[in-house]
């Protein structure tokens, strides 16, 4: 007998496809055991299966006492028996918790089922992928997309400061939930997807040891060549994402993977204004800067790159929104629903390829963020190699991970103040002020003081600060505008809404809020991440 893995309908051995949902049938003896509703997994009770993919299944669950909803990712029996993949599965959870940023999905529990399968518990998200949002709109205007980019940049910079590179950035791995205060709020998914899956992993990922892995449409030149990569590979991939969001088209496309890899490594990226004449040409330079073939020529951080885009947009007269409207609800619900739980479901002319390097990570804690959403997931997206088209929504529960590994890029700490959270309006109830009636206008002339000494002194037009730092050659910027070098003194115009940014060669940029008074500001910059060193040793997460 054969069974549909989705609906569990059984068929005779001579049938290969399910009549209900078109899924391929699998032999009964290879079918994964299903966690029935009511099953207790850790502290959570299973309510139903959300999806199943190449690496396992995802279930909706709820805490029976406090009612907290969650998603539970369960590795298949095949992968649970592979110590390398189990190690990377655990590394995914560790990486996310090391970063601890509210724009990255939260994983908060891990365990082993009685039958030996590993699982972890993560937040449940309600919304859609950035890919699905792009499908709705065709292309996204700069005013709408920049607030989303800013939040993603903060998440990536926090990851890089913790010594972790994403390495598979694409719109399908960015999830949008809706926040009442800030509008669309992005969550970064899929940290540390598998590197060395080998031949034992089946047909879902056709990769081999030593191959360059990632998603070719978004891969950096160094990834395409199979070279060691650092955080700058994310800057290149993010540049492709930005180009696609603003123009509705990818900068590099090809009929097969080999041609695409050649273009990624050697062909210059087209200016966005040449692809989409409605876009201001001023936006071309900052995006092309991200798409430099040489990693050393790219921006130093993702935040720096996005700030350059925002500055160019403002210079072109574009008013950047602070709240991005909610996507159309009708388009979230229309069409049939297909469940996908990992990137192995992507199908297209260019296959998905994944890589992660494993190396020791020095202990560094970036600015903590808070993950606070427990919602249900709904997303859309077909293969990375297909043209953007169609509007069929997909339901995705949480992170799609197979073999996961943490990437150490050295000890860096991008210490952001509480600005990692969106600029939300205060939600506390505030009593409305009493409005006194305005007295009638008098015909008598206004009395002007004879001496200006009676009026209070006006505050100085600029703040003056001195920089206290051990790092040589620190330059101070107001946004992208240079103010001078440390130690100063540095004059800052009052009333500006920009952040201070401290930069030095070989160090990660440090953004800081502008002080309210004159004085000395202590600045501690962290070195840029080192290149990764691959270790063949596989950590056993269950070793005492």
TrEMBL record:
<keyword id="KW-0418">Kinase</keyword>
<dbReference type="Pfam" id="PF00069">
    <property type="entry name" value="Pkinase"/>
</dbReference>
<protein>
    <submittedName>
        <fullName>Serine/threonine protein kinase</fullName>
    </submittedName>
</protein>
<dbReference type="GO" id="GO:0004674">
    <property type="term" value="F:protein serine/threonine kinase activity"/>
</dbReference>
<dbReference type="InterPro" id="IPR011009">
    <property type="entry name" value="Kinase-like_dom_sf"/>
</dbReference>
<keyword id="KW-0067">ATP-binding</keyword>
<keyword id="KW-0547">Nucleotide-binding</keyword>
<dbReference type="InterPro" id="IPR008271">
    <property type="entry name" value="Ser/Thr_kinase_AS"/>
</dbReference>
<feature type="binding site">
    <location>
        <position position="73"/>
    </location>
    <ligand>
        <name>ATP</name>
    </ligand>
</feature>
<dbReference type="InterPro" id="IPR017441">
    <property type="entry name" value="Protein_kinase_ATP_BS"/>
</dbReference>
<dbReference type="GO" id="GO:0005524">
    <property type="term" value="F:ATP binding"/>
</dbReference>
<feature type="domain" description="Protein kinase">
    <location>
        <begin position="44"/>
        <end position="310"/>
    </location>
</feature>
<keyword id="KW-0808">Transferase</keyword>
<dbReference type="InterPro" id="IPR000719">
    <property type="entry name" value="Prot_kinase_dom"/>
</dbReference>
<keyword id="KW-0723">Serine/threonine-protein kinase</keyword>
């Amino acid at each position: 007998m054969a069974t549909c893995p989705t609906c569990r309908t059984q068929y005779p051995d001579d049938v290969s496809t399910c009549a209900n949902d078109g899924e391929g049938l699998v032999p009964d003896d290879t079918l994964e055991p299903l966690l029935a509703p009511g099953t207790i997994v850790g502290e959570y009770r299973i309510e139903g299966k959300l999806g199943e993919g190449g690496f396992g299944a995802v279930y909706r669950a709820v805490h029976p006492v406090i009612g907290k909803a969650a998603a539970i990712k369960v590795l298949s029996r095949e992968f649970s028996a592979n110590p390398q993949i189990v190690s990377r599965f655990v590394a995914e959870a560790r990486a996310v918790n090391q970063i601890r940023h509210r724009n990255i999905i939260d994983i908060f529990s891990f365990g082993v089922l009685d039958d030996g399968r590993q699982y972890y518990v993560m937040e449940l998200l309600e919304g859609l992928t950035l890919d699905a949002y792009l499908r709705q709109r065709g292309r996204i205007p700069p005013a709408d997309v920049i607030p989303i980019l800013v939040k993603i940049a903060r998440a990536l910079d926090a990851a890089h400061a913790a010594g972790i590179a994403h390495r598979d950035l694409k719109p399908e791995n960015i999830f949008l939930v809706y926040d009442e205060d800030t509008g669309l709020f992005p969550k970064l998914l899929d940290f540390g997807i598998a590197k060395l899956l080998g031949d034992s992993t089946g047909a879902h990922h056709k990769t081999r040891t030593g191959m360059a892995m990632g998603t070719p449409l978004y891969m950096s030149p160094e990834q395409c060549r199979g070279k060691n990569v650092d955080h700058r590979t994310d800057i290149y991939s993010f540049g492709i994402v930005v180009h696609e969001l603003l123009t509705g088209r990818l900068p590099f496309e090809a009929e097969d993977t080999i041609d695409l890899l050649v273009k990624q490594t050697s062909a210059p990226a087209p200016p966005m204004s040449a692809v989409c004449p409605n876009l201001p040409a001023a936006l071309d330079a900052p995006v092309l800067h991200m798409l430099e073939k040489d990693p050393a020529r790219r921006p130093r951080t993702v935040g720096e790159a996005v700030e350059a885009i925002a500055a160019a947009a403002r210079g072109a007269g574009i008013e950047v929104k602070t709240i991005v409207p909610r996507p159309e609800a009708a388009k979230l619900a229309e069409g049939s629903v297909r469940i996908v739980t990992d990137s192995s479901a992507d199908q297209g002319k260019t296959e998905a390829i994944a890589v992660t390097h494993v190396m020791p990570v020095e202990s560094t804690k970036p600015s903590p963020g808070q993950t606070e959403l427990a919602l249900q997931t709904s997303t859309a997206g077909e293969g990375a190699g297909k043209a953007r088209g169609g509007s069929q929504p997909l339901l995705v529960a949480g992170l799609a991970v197979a073999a996961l590994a943490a990437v150490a890029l050295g000890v860096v700490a991008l210490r952001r103040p509480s600005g990692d959270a969106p600029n939300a309006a205060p939600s506390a109830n505030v009593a409305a002020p009493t409005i006194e009636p305005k007295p009638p206008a008098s015909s008598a002339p206004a009395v002007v003081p004879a001496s200006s000494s009676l009026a209070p002194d006006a505050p100085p037009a600029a703040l003056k600060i001195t920089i206290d730092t051990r790092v040589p050659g620190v330059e101070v910027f107001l946004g992208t505008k240079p103010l001078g070098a440390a130690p100063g003194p540095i004059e800052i115009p009052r009333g500006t809404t920009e952040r201070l940014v401290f930069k030095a060669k070989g160090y990660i940029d440090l953004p800081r809020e502008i002080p309210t008074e004159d004085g000395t500001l202590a600045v501690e910059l962290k070195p840029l991440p080192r290149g990764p060193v691959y270790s063949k040793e596989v950590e056993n997460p269950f070793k005492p």
